[in-house]
Design a protein that fits this description.
It is built from 10 helices and 8 strands. The protein is α/β, with parallel strands linked by helices and 228 residues long. A hairpin with a 2-residue loop joins β4 and β5 (84-85). α1 crosses α10 and α8 (150-163) packs across α9 (171-187). The protein is globular and about 50 Å long.
Length: 228
């Protein structure tokens, strides 16, 4: 029986998992761990060092040289790759186009799960990803599974890229990328994206960020009472 409270948020790409997780962690005073950022950082390392997705030996060696850490600044969670701040770079299209393939590699998932479980051993946390409620923290007290209409998801992601100065990626590029990632995430052999049986479905196609936060807080409230 856990003495700390773990909130697991899984779901499809660009459903606003990180947005909800950050807001929920801030409201509750919990630690936010962005598991997706961890896989993106590994992907960035592989791209920079020309690590082939099929070169087993090089992958094993590379994972021994990757140190990931989170730190908070201005109420935001930032990730460092071997001491370098990479929070912005890991959101760019080259990483987005390869992260699903990297995430499907067994050795990568094993190492990331090990690190994630260490982070959640004794502290109250909110973690979002693809397999948090099914693999990383199957014993999490509260689990959400987020979804939204694919067109809405693409539009949200497109606006996010534009706001960060990306004028080269089209809305069609984003839509195709999300479709590819959905397929890869749900069909991969290692920890595919599936809804845990006890996960609460949160479809945010037609609700605001404030409404989804209120929904989540209401679901977490009974478990908070047990901590006190």
């Amino acid at each position: 029986m856990r003495k700390n409270l773990v909130v697991a948020i899984d779901g499809y790409s660009s459903c606003g998992k990180s947005t909800l997780a950050k807001a929920l962690a801030k409201k509750l005073g919990f630690i936010y761990i962005d598991s997706g950022a961890m896989y993106r950082a590994v992907t960035l390392y592989f791209l920079r060092n020309h690590i082939s997705m099929t070169d087993h030996d090089k992958i094993i060696d590379a994972l021994q040289h990757i140190e990931l850490n989170f730190h908070s600044r201005d109420y935001e969670s930032h990730i460092t790759l071997n001491g370098e701040e990479v929070s912005e770079e890991i959101r760019k299209m080259p990483v987005s186009e390869n992260v699903s393939e990297v995430s499907a590699i067994k050795e990568v998932r094993t190492e990331m799960v090990r690190q994630q479980q260490r982070m959640g051993k004794s502290k109250n946390i909110v973690m979002d990803g693809r397999d948090i409620g099914t693999t990383v923290f199957a014993d999490a007290q509260v689990k959400f599974f987020m979804t939204a209409d694919p067109k809405i998801r693409a539009e949200r992601r497109y606006k996010e890229l534009q706001s960060k100065g990306d004028t080269e990626t089209s809305l069609e590029d984003v839509f195709e990328n999300l479709a590819h990632r959905d397929y890869a995430d749900t069909t991969r052999k290692e920890s595919p994206l599936v809804r845990a049986e006890d996960a609460i479905i949160l479809d945010n196609t037609d609700i605001t960020q404030e409404e989804q936060l209120e929904f989540a807080l209401n679901k977490v409230a009974p478990y908070l009472a047990k901590l006190n």
